[in-house]
Queue: 2 jobs
Job 1
Amino acid sequence: MFEITFRFENSEDTVVIAASPEETILDAARKANVAIDAPCSGNGSCGKCRVKLLSGEVSGLQTSHISDEEYAEGWRLSCCTKPLSDLSVLVPDIASAYRSRMKTADLSSGKEIEIFENLLSGVRAAGVELKNAFETVDLTLDAPTLDDTMPDNERLTRALAEKVGAEIELPFYPMRRLPSVLRENDFSIRVIGERKGETFLIYDITGRNDTRPLCGVGIDIGTTTVSAVLFDLKDGRLLAKASGGNGQIRYGADVINRIIEQGKNGGRKKLQDAIIKETLVPLIAALCRQAGVPATRIYRMAVASNTTMNHLLLGVDADPVRTEPYIPAFFHYESLKAADIGLPAHPNAAVRIAPNIGSYVGGDITAGAFAAMLWDRDELSLFIDLGTNGEIVFGNRDFLVSCACSAGPAFEGGDISCGMRATDGAIESVTIDETTMEPTLGIIGEAGQKPVGLCGSGIIDLIAELFRCGIINSKGIFVREGERVAHDRHGCGRYILATPNESATGREVALNEVDIVNFIRAKGAIYSAIDTLLSAMDMDESVLEAVYVAGGIGSGINMQNAVRIGMFPNVPLEMFHYIGNSSLAGAYAIALSEAADAKVSEVARNMTYMELSTHPGYMDAFVAACFLPHTDASRFA
Amino acid sequence: MFEITFRFENSEDTVVIAASPEETILDAARKANVAIDAPCSGNGSCGKCRVKLLSGEVSGLQTSHISDEEYAEGWRLSCCTKPLSDLSVLVPDIASAYRSRMKTADLSSGKEIEIFENLLSGVRAAGVELKNAFETVDLTLDAPTLDDTMPDNERLTRALAEKVGAEIELPFYPMRRLPSVLRENDFSIRVIGERKGETFLIYDITGRNDTRPLCGVGIDIGTTTVSAVLFDLKDGRLLAKASGGNGQIRYGADVINRIIEQGKNGGRKKLQDAIIKETLVPLIAALCRQAGVPATRIYRMAVASNTTMNHLLLGVDADPVRTEPYIPAFFHYESLKAADIGLPAHPNAAVRIAPNIGSYVGGDITAGAFAAMLWDRDELSLFIDLGTNGEIVFGNRDFLVSCACSAGPAFEGGDISCGMRATDGAIESVTIDETTMEPTLGIIGEAGQKPVGLCGSGIIDLIAELFRCGIINSKGIFVREGERVAHDRHGCGRYILATPNESATGREVALNEVDIVNFIRAKGAIYSAIDTLLSAMDMDESVLEAVYVAGGIGSGINMQNAVRIGMFPNVPLEMFHYIGNSSLAGAYAIALSEAADAKVSEVARNMTYMELSTHPGYMDAFVAACFLPHTDASRFA
């Protein structure tokens, strides 16, 4: 056994663990609970898990993801490298940038917020009341005397029952502090509770001077990215918004790898800890800090997520989701409380889970389709959610049919060597001068922000532009020479967006042929899913009247370019509507409103699920779509 | 600041803490969470908090509790001793013997078990059904197929609803393991649940081969002693019994000192931890070990305890109980679950709290009076619960009136220099030869057990015998000389029951004048409470038809001696019935039976509380009773 000492960029911490010569550095890191990104789950294909060898001897070959110069500096892929002696390795901060960086939104501006609020006006306009059963009740109780020795709880519940005309339920959490709160406030108090049928359920008892809002939280748990909003339960006013990476990413980029990991000994706990302790706890803490409220002020929550993600969140075995006959533990599960899974909130806060309708169409889609309002429209519409899983819903108020495809993490910047989430430093738009081949970049962040990597919308633009300018062919292979085009010693071409001097990190930002092929596969999965779904209904894209595109791919998605590369059907551009993170909007609506919650369940019950993987024709459609724009070029003429 | 190093008898552990010259060793021990018994809460009166100085210099005077020889050996009272240098002190194991020793009962024998079961036959005979709403239901579900993809939870709840004819509630705890349990058992399962009105509430889903019993637990939390039974919910069969000291003892021997301690910064948490983490968690673990079941198999619990103890258990501020107008936070509190306060049991297990009726008459008395069956008898009966608080209930099926007095811990061996609980090594009975003054001892434990100390019943016998033999006078002062009588240099007399050679510990076992005075005060409190309660009803002891004596004072209490010292009223001996721990029996009945639970609440609602402390005449009656047997000797003629 050797000792591996992990050191961390921008940190004084060290972690030491014993490792055998048969274990990779990534294996050892996982044992030691050291977070190294490995979207491909350690099979050497994504190139994300790089570490820098500071001392010691290792075995393992140089891969195409490491340049000669980098190799000389000590860079290695941790999944392909094993110790031959005691080691000291540096875990780069940048490697986990797209995973761990948390972004809190400025709610005073932002296109995404606007989109978000438009969605909700639509919901309201459709007659879904955006309200809940929470109330604050002010009470002045008689102070006890030697002749009036009624105990505190009876004193409270009798007066409250009379005022609200309901039976009172006083759970342990508010009971605990009752005598102190009554006496600190001279028996003049404010009760926070929720009406449930004939019962008024108490959550908190506080003073009259406590004017902090009653809060709700909506959460979208994506396979790669997690976003959440905190809002005032009274009127739905947004108080904070934040997003970050899903901490489970180091157990695999897609749901299949995560399910395999959770099936290992202790895996369910590890995956659950990764999403709750590592991801949601700091995310909700950021929301609360931003809004200036304690987490115990969160009284109602809703989570929209795919079937695998909500199983892993609950710590429920997800293996049956993956294996025939593909049975989730639940579609609807309505009894969850924050304390059950240790979410930072009032312990009795209900956690509503947007319902699943199948193994691969989950609550993110039912919530998203709800927010996209397909169920309230006459027009035949298509809803496309671009995430690690791509999901498609087609229909109108008369019918809804859905399917899912595995796109991989490419749309969120995973599986792409310089990919990243749509956060500061991400290149979100690209144009290329056809003559000089020089790029013009749109970068997220303040003026002067140098590029760190590429987010999904930037990749779409870049591939569309490379193809338009004839720099790559329909298979994604480089066919023009130039200053911006380079090849490594294996002959793999790449387009250089930023040289080491031009980038924020001192490392080149480029898109190579492997990345392009990965991305073509992702866009092909989406297009062929749409194609197959419409064919199954004996229709084609000519019937479409509207296309709603959702997902965290970046607010600036260029629809023309997306059509140009054959990702979306070739319909008039004005039919496309980017609706942002509709899953988050749906979660927000469910957390805010009993009526929305009920409506999402109704939409889910009326949605038909089509299993693509067993559908004849899908594989052919997929292969045909893995070209730029398509093997059948007439579709994009 | 100096460093104090605590070492422990029979342990390799050490604990080091910094302490100022102004702090006592006891203060430092409490800061360091080192358990040193201090029933008097550190005012130098009980003499229990002795430690042995191994090295270092200290300030503080020798007290009467430490002999010259012991002083020379390094023994000091930790509450009266402060550091003058770094110290090393030994914390003796024997000091905490009466607190921490846990005793598990052999259920195949034992007078106490017999008494316990007789009580329950009485309850059953009175028409109270000893059953609950727990059920096990065997189900065979259709295994899912590609054509039958209903998720697990719907599959379960539909089949179960049909079988039990009720709406199904599936909380998170059983939901969590659902997919695994279904598949491990080929969809042929056993459901454990409870009917609640129209609902069937699931607790566990398990395999058909799981034949372990569904368990309930009844707990009596006394100020000094805690006892519990674990039983089969199906038929009430006892599976295990255990008892131990209340870990809160180091924060004071009586409820007043505990309430003061819990009012300090962080005190509520400390007192709650002392009863839950230090006391109930190991006690329940012992029960489960004995019965061979995991704690999660406990589905229903009940606690009988005085008002202060149940407030401290819940972590609810008890200060209003102590200060005018003496208002508890609750009399009845019915919403508690095991998970709310971290009791080791199924997290959804209800924890029923026997109701309080006043600040100083709590659930131990309502549960005890229930078990003593006063509410079902025609005879005018007296119920006496001998504990740190003494409580009296008087009446019959037509009325019940109760009061409480503070007896201190003497009946349970506290406040007595060689006192201990009624466990192995306790002298539980004494006779003295009037001529030779030599004692004959009855000692708890196996044959040949040497004495460790005196439990309550032994103290009653000893004082009665010393008085009968003219060795002490009616004030408790030694008036005969002899080999067994000694005096310290302050002139304080004592009777030696065992010399260092004769004892189990190498230390003398004796009862001194201070102990006798403490005990006379305790018995005086009980007698005067009975006297005052009867007088207030315009009655006297001549109306009594039965006297039920309860408490952990020792099963062998000699009623004649108790009357002889003026502790109990002078009624014919055949009227006395020792009924053991009736509070525990009541808790057991509440945990086992919904009907018993309801009946205890009814008894509590019909019981009148008389506040003794403000009652004119009580103080005079108390002073008159602080003699052997009484200032009015005609009462005991």
Job 2
Amino acid sequence: MCKKDSLISSELSCKSTWKPGTLIYPLPAALISCGNGNEINIMTVSWLGTICTNPPMCYISVRPERHSYDLIKKNGCFVINLTNEEMAFATDWCGVKSGKDINKFKEMNLTPLKAQVVDAPIIKESPLSIECEVVEIKELGSHHMFIANVVNILADEKYIDKNSGAFDMTKAKLIAYSHGKYYKLGEEIGHFGWSVKKK
Amino acid sequence: MCKKDSLISSELSCKSTWKPGTLIYPLPAALISCGNGNEINIMTVSWLGTICTNPPMCYISVRPERHSYDLIKKNGCFVINLTNEEMAFATDWCGVKSGKDINKFKEMNLTPLKAQVVDAPIIKESPLSIECEVVEIKELGSHHMFIANVVNILADEKYIDKNSGAFDMTKAKLIAYSHGKYYKLGEEIGHFGWSVKKK
């Protein structure tokens, strides 16, 4: 219990005020693969995340102008492919180029494989592919939010520890996106709950 | 343009199938400050993100059992405080402990300051505090998603470059959370658009 009036100082002199903006970081820079029938595509997205643990649900927010938008809207599904250091160049490139005129899979030497549950490709080179089924589209403004159920996960076996059977996220060498820059993940600080064990 | 049938191989032998889960990483581990009137609190959240650029909107997903849930629901606002290496211990601790019985600000030596727009505290020690006003609550399952407008940003002046006037995210030393572990951000790989300039 924490009484507010005795605790909140009104001294904001060390802070600079900015106009509202999108400054939640670091984030993933994921490759979204989508399309079925005649056409498949890839786009890079950082406006994505988990919104519920049980059932597992997530979202991606996409500008309607993007080539993948209509493919996802029409087919009702997409795949979130996590990206690692090896894929950094393709991750940036697929966020800048449009699939309207280009075969991004071919240009970036990425391999589309049929997903197991949804009717969309996964990217073979990704360490972890998350198959998603759209349940709602929220038209918020510049971006529309695709709210989705996670319906299947495909993990690359080369990152699965042979002894424990667990996926080793550290070995996957995921990259982070923060305020216009891509970073490797650095030194490990601790695991969830370490602050309590340490005491 | 990318024709699917000629491109998608059905060879999934290198992939291991998992049941659906929450595996989008790396993410922020943000400290959410909330409360007004008699009580304020802090909780740690990784299910958060940007959902729209214009207008700037974001979300946090929270279990209804958490002590902060009712405070946010009642007051209709919260603050997302980004966390850095110095705050890593407090970040983990505030995610494990409940504010029902504890004054988390006091225990972790964090300083509540009055936000500028919303009726909630910000955390002085955070490099960047994002003031949010709830516009909708979606009851998804284990977690309810608070959809919010970003209404103000407070940035710590010590991370603002005196020459350019820009906030230096690199200096802020943000931390990332990935599959149960906290990490420093490591080596910079490139900036948005580098793949095109390089060519």
